[in-house]
């Protein structure tokens, strides 16, 4: 079993046990706030089941119908999880609003508080574990599931504080008010997960990856690499794809061009940057490139070297050679 599959199985098993514990707490107390936490646990179980399937699918090898692999399903999994959280939050807000107007008696709050407190601590440990594994394995699904469990931890903490206040003040309507506040927080969390997953499905560029790539290229640039531009990134589950254009001396033959491009690929994948598949397009230099070109023995130089252009993410993502950026 892979590390990712092991992590999501642990998450699913823990979610089921904690859901049962929270419903026990609800049945012995009748607390709306505890019901809120229990209802969110149902979402945890459903989302965990879907996440398990998406992890399984994302690890399948590429085939004729999926030349980039199956990794995009992880973004879809995070999207579904976000939608489920949103729905759960809205339902919680409506139900708690009703009970705020028509309050009901709650009891045995001490026992319920202890159960919710323990489940919150367990969720925190598992959530942090999932996020750690997700970042290491570059799994959007595991990070989303971990963030969801941490959200559950925060809501449990808020509910524990609220239940203690109810026991101290004996103000019953605080139960529904706390539940409503927690519901809004759950909706906000669902929105963030949904927004992030939609960005992945729409191939939003990973700016952090762009920064890592540019830093490696700038710190290890070779003289023939006159400029790098039109750099784009995409993520397919744990796999990353990088497209860019590299300006090389126009008199290089095909073997020299291939060697320089291969060196860039090797540099990116062996310098601490996340493993990626690169598609590099070679552009020929123009006379206007001479004033920032480092080729000291260039046989066709039209102008003396003046100043190096430091590569930054803002420069390399533009689809134009650097002399067109009017940086000098």
From TrEMBL:
Lineage, top-rank taxon, reads Bacteria
Q: Any one Gene Ontology biological process term?
A: intracellular zinc ion homeostasis
Indicate where this protein resides in the cell.
Membrane
Taken from the UniProt entry, a GO cellular component term is: plasma membrane
- Known SUPFAM superfamilies for this protein? Cation efflux protein cytoplasmic domain-like (SSF160240), Cation efflux protein transmembrane domain-like (SSF161111)
* Family under the similarity heading: Belongs to the cation diffusion facilitator (CDF) transporter (TC 2.A.4) family.
Protein name as catalogued: Cation transporter
């Amino acid at each position: 079993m892979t590390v990712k599959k092991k992590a999501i199985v642990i998450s699913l098993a823990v979610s089921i046990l904690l859901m049962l514990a929270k419903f026990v707490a609800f049945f012995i107390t009748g607390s709306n706030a505890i019901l809120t936490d229990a209802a969110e646990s149902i979402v945890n179980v459903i989302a965990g089941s879907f996440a398990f399937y998406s992890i399984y699918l994302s690890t399948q090898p590429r085939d004729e119908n999926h030349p980039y692999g199956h990794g995009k399903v992880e973004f879809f999994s995070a999207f579904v999880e976000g939608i489920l959280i949103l729905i759960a939050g809205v339902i919680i807000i409506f139900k708690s609003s009703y009970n705020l107007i028509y309050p009901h008696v709650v009891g045995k709050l001490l026992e319920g508080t202890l159960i919710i407190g323990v489940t919150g601590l367990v969720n925190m440990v598992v959530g942090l574990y999932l996020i750690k594994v997700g970042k290491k394995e570059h799994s959007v699904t595991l990070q989303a599931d971990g963030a969801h469990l941490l959200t559950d931890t925060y809501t449990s903490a808020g509910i524990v504080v609220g239940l203690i206040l109810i026991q101290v003040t004996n103000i019953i309507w605080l139960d529904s008010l706390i539940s409503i506040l927690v519901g809004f927080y759950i909706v906000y969390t669902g929105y963030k997960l949904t927004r992030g997953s939609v960005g992945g499905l729409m191939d939003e560029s990973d700016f952090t990856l762009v920064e890592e790539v540019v830093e490696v290229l700038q710190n290890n640039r070779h003289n023939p690499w006159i400029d790098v531009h039109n750099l784009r990134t995409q993520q397919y589950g744990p796999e990353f794809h990088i497209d860019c254009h590299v300006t090389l001396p126009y008199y290089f033959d095909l073997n020299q061009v291939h060697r320089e491009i291969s060196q860039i690929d090797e540099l990116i994948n062996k310098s601490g940057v996340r493993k990626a598949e690169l598609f590099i397009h070679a552009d020929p230099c123009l006379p206007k490139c001479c004033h920032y070109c480092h080729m000291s023995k260039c046989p066709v130089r039209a102008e003396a070297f003046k100043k190096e252009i430091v590569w930054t993410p803002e420069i390399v993502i533009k689809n134009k050679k650097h002399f067109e950026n009017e940086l000098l």
